[in-house]
Design brief:
The structure is a single chain. Helix content is 74%, strand content 0%. It is an all-alpha fold. The relative contact order is 0.08.
Length: 102
Amino acid sequence: MVGARLPTGLVRDLDMIENVEQADRSTTIRKLLCRAVADWKLEHQARQYGSGKASLARAAREAGVSVWEMMDYLRSRKIAAQYDLEDLEADLKTVRARTLLR
């Protein structure tokens, strides 16, 4: 159970959403809060990735989205890929080693 004081304008907006969605106050607030938290996690993890504090896979996992969704989000936010020549060489080395094992 969480209680919060809300500004009058926000309560009016909630009333409008409840009427449109045909939902009660608790359901409406839960739905909007879940969306806001998901958006915050995505933005936060994008910042972590952009600053080099998280890998792409980790940022996606922590944000609760696929790597492809995270890549699309990063692209939309114009956050540069944290992938350099050394990363490419390491990936190519891994691919070559796996190819030779077959």
